[in-house]
Amino acid sequence: MKLILSKIILTVSGIVLILSTILMVRHIEPFYSHYFLFAWWSYIGIIDAWLYLKGGESVFIGEIVDFITFLVPLSAFIWCIFELINLRIHNWHYIGVPIEVWIRWPGYFFAFGTVLPGIFLTANLLDHCGILHKNEFSQFFADRPSRRFIAISLTGGLLMLALPMLWPKYFFPLVWGGMVLLLDPINAAWGRKSLLQEWRQNNWSRTLQLLLAGFICGGLWEFWNFWAGAKWIYSVPLPEALLKNLKIFEMPALGFLGFPPFALECFVIMEFARGVREKVSRTSWRLLLASAFAFSLFMCWQIDRHIVNSFR
Predict the structure, then answer these.
(1) Residue 200, class by beta-carbon neighbours within 10 Å (0-12 exposed, 13-18 middle, 19+ buried)?
(2) At residue 97, what are phi and psi to the nearest 5 degrees?
């Protein structure tokens, strides 16, 4: 059954990507305004189905329930956290978003929901193709980080997140990496997959794979965003010459350096969320889900009020 499903998804996703691109170029709605969604979900479908057919690590067909109930909602929630941070640092704004809230808010969810699947599928694709093939042995490392090390790392992570809030003009790049120092030591202490544990074992393959996947996804995000009617633009506090003369699509060239560490953050946050799900009761987990949903709705409202520059 899943074999047939994967072939259907691969075919349909390829057709949707081609047709939506043609219709976007002709400015035909909804493909023009929502081209980013059509392109990204097509990419996810193509890569996931291809990996499943080739015996690689699928995140959708291989784990359909987890994908729908955990990975995509977590992805949307994580990006809402960064939208909350953006209320302070003001690094990006949205233009041309649909004026109808019943289209706009689900559009936020499905756009934000592509982040984790896109990064992890790209990393899985690299792994299946033998590029920086990852070694799975961090969980078998008996020597857990000391409490002192965890405290130092947590302090560093909090500092990296606090400085952009206090002085966003100078420290905004620290946002893209602070979660690694903040949460990865906890993952290690819980015995979950941990980048810090792998670094202690001189195992750099997963880190390098995620960094490359983040860079690739960053390029795709910016490429597909550039052509869409509803998109984001940047207001990064860089010198004017860098903003005007060194832009790739909508992104200042230096901004692409943030995508690789962001991929590490996504991995660390996902492992932390899985750890929390294992440790709390079912009732507590449901309360956390309800709280995350309420926070996401609140952020949709805040995005409309403070981050959207224009409606279509």
Answers:
(1) middle
(2) -75, 155
CB 38 within 8 A of CB 17: yes
Q: How far apart are CA 230 and CA 27, in angstroms?
A: 12
Q: Cβ distance 264 to 214 under 8 Å?
A: yes
* 247 backbone dihedrals φ, ψ, rounded to 5°: -105, 140
Q: What is the per-residue pLDDT across 211-267, written as a single tens digit (0 to 9) for each?
A: 999 999 999 999 999 999 999 999 887 665 555 568 889 998 888 999 999 999 999
* Cα distance between residue 54 and residue 204, in whole Å: 25
Q: What is the mean pLDDT of the chain?
A: 93
- Per-position b or e across 172-183, b if 16+ CB within 10 A of its CB: bbbbbbbbbbbb
At residue 124, φ and ψ (nearest 5 deg) are -65, -35
> How far lies 218's CA from each of 1, 13, 31, 211, 308, in Å?
34, 21, 21, 10, 21
pLDDT in tens, 293-305: 999 999 999 999 9
Q: Is 143 helix (H, G, I), strand (E, B) or coil?
A: coil
Residue 311, CA distances (Å) to 101, 120, 300 in order: 11, 32, 14
What is the average pLDDT across 43-47?
A: 98
In terms of DSSP H, where are the helices of 26-114? Answer: 35-53, 64-66, 72-89, 101-112
Residue 48, token pair as written in the block: 């996931």
User: Which residues have a Cβ under 8 Å from the Cβ of 247 and sit 6 or more positions away?
Assistant: 253
Q: With 0-12 CB in 10 A as exposed, 13-18 as middle and 19+ as buried, what is 34? A: buried
Return the amino acid letter for 198.
E
Count of residues making up the chain: 312
Q: Where are the beta strands (DSSP E) in the chain?
A: 92-95, 231-234, 247-248, 251-252
Tokens of 68: 């729908």
Stated pTM of the model = 0.94
